[in-house]
């Protein structure tokens, strides 16, 4: 969106796509290293299957997002459904609309599920090993405190753009239950556990603020009609900020 189109033509990968490709390689490697450091882990075969599912889901999402974001330059509006978009309505033959809906399904549903379920599973398994009986180890260094903000903002974007609030909140509740259970045993979170736990708490605050801010937006309400109303940042962008660009 920011860089000139001449640098990255619409029929070629964008700068964001290259970052996404790097993410698809770096993040699985980091998750493997993370799970290796945890005293509690899943069976090795299950860890490998989780990482494979993660890479497949993130790769599906990469292709879907690359096409969807490029469509913005043609007038596609993320705050509308696929069939309600003006540029989609005019497609001939009409069966092409089904293809775009299939692309949306792979991007927003299948890709997100295969990406985020293994991601949060590995995070939770890692979290189960972040307890210690030593009070002195339950302190976060200054560097970690400074990074809690960016970490929370990252999780906020994952939850809102990925529409995975249910997965996130169940993971958070499981973390809270585990903390209370371990506390009865005289165990407390170490610095790594505190970092993850505080990140999830601040993420919940950011999500609540985001929802309250857009609570009365009638157009976004129509796009997200369910009980859980959490608009996507991209939908907000195409509705309220694309004119500024």
From TrEMBL:
Record GO biological process: lysosome organization
Top-level taxon: Eukaryota
Keyword Transmembrane helix among record annotations: yes
Keywords: Membrane, Transmembrane, Transmembrane helix
Keyword field contains Manganese: no
Name under which the protein is recorded: Ceroid-lipofuscinosis neuronal protein 6
GO annotation, cellular component aspect: endoplasmic reticulum; membrane
Transmembrane stretches, start-end: 18-35, 47-64, 115-134, 141-158, 164-181, 193-215
InterPro entries named in the record: CLN6
PANTHER family, A to Z: CEROID-LIPOFUSCINOSIS NEURONAL PROTEIN 6
